[in-house]
């Protein structure tokens, strides 16, 4: 896989994790409005209103009931899968060390200004705090280890894989980009003239850019990897030639024309050969096993995971 595809799947994983955590938090009552009492009576909490519309109230009990209806089975399913993975890991003597989680988190943070900005983005966009991110990352690494446990490769096979996927293991550049997108060449020249007259880039972007995803952020796209498939190639090409703090002449894009500002440039650290080969072994194994979800299904069956009936749980 290319690093772009890995990044996309990483986003999908994080979004899926977010749904699970959100459902769990809401069903269990975590993060919900609390009364002033440390141990409120269940009746008072159930009947406590949490929202209103017109002259109608929505109670805590109604809210939780609806959340359980929509997300309850999904959350229970995820909990059973996690338990099955943990049982298998214990039987195989597999564990995930804190330094492994830290290393994975560092990889996820590539492209963010700082550790703090990464966690802030996760909190704002997905509602996940640092502890939740850590625990879910650990669980995913545990699943990977369990799934790939029986797979072994020779050193020669690993060398061949690295040689055929060189782009995945080379250092790569990231750019802190902003852009102003306008519909035609005339508007592009007007925007460029405003910049040359001393109007701030963020102000020109806010007033003229037609890119709905960045205009209200002053045109900011954040840190973008070189080769990112979601950024137009013409913009990346011009970004490579800019110096930090410089904006480009208008370039053709799908929506019309764009003026690109480079606010920063950085390169990922060079990995030593041992780290590259360890990562390659992991990538090879994950590619060979196919679906991690299928692994979870096998483990759930092995450990007889099932949902209890009302009669069994009473």
TrEMBL record:
Catalytic activity: [protein]-peptidylproline (omega=180) = [protein]-peptidylproline (omega=0)
One Gene Ontology molecular-function label: peptidyl-prolyl cis-trans isomerase activity
Transmembrane segments: 7-32
Enzyme class, spelled out: isomerase
Segments forming domain PpiC: 172-264
Pfam family, one: Rotamase
Alphabetical UniProt keywords: Isomerase, Membrane, Rotamase, Signal, Transmembrane, Transmembrane helix
EC number: 5.2.1.8
Record has Isomerase as a keyword: yes
InterPro entries tied to this protein: PPIase_dom_sf (IPR046357), PPIase_PpiC (IPR000297), PrsA_foldase (IPR050245), Trigger_fact/SurA_dom_sf (IPR027304)
PANTHER family, per database record: FOLDASE PROTEIN PRSA (PTHR47245:SF1), PEPTIDYLPROLYL ISOMERASE (PTHR47245)
Name of the protein in question: peptidylprolyl isomerase
